[in-house]
Amino acid sequence: MDRISTTQGQLLPIKGSKGETASWLELMKLFHEAMSSGRWRKKYESPTDYLNAFAAASGNTPNTIRRYKAAYEFLQRQAEKKPKVWDPFAGGGGLAPAFTSVELIKRIHDVEPKAAERVFLRHRKGETTFRELKAEYDNLLGGRVDTIFANPPFADAIPLADAKKLGHRRNRRLSDDVRAMLEPHVSELSGPQARLYVGKYKFEFVDPSAVAVGVDGTSVSYVDGYEYVPSGPEMAPAQMRSLLADLTFQASFFRKFWVVFGEYCASANAIRSKLDRLHENSIGFAVENAQGQLRSLKKPADGHHADRQDLARAEVFSQGVSLS
Length: 324
Fold this sequence. Notes:
By secondary structure, this protein is an alpha/beta fold. It contains 15 helices and 6 strands.
């Protein structure tokens, strides 16, 4: 008897009279019983071997079984805390939870645990559709942008496609915030002839939060760069190194380069200190206050770094600039 046949024999107790496989919950219950008891070791060299054979015997792909497993283990973890709410086998809980809905409720839980409990109860009672669950999830994502991105481990729990959606929303909000914050101060920071642009110009090598452009007649006389570092917890060492490398590289493209800190940026002093140690005098610093206004901490000075200002001026000029 081959391995698949052996696993098919284990599935017989939960097959219907017509040989139909059981629900995803019953499949996962059998799978976890085999894994926890160690029965899989009698015929299989690894858990992966057993999972693959289990998938074939139950008529599913290995990836489907992995998804079942993740959803089932999520329910089990929640049931350990609140069995009356989350136990999927509790008859008094209502309808058996649908797999695709549990996957979505798990995502909701990653964003707002209390909301997940509420919608799960409604789901068990048949009071909500999958479309309504999806709308709930989208609304929660939109409302928790700042919280999620201020907590990188939390952000990592968000699926990639949704993280991209969140990123687009957050970038739009940041662009509006940066424009409103910098506009009243651009003359002070970059000169009376400077015009502020947020998101207008695309550069091949750098991506500043904003630029201020000085126009002299029909030519671009200078481009200043601005990088906004929002409020948030202290950066991890790897994140700090990446930011410092990015800031020093970007600074070489602009006449002046301003790093603007959010009011509660916990790494602001460390960033300033490290850039001073690197003798990056061409980088200036400003900080946002509670009213959204800027206070200059240190003005940029003429520095000795690789000068790439001609590239920035050329790209702005090639993409067009209003001369009026």
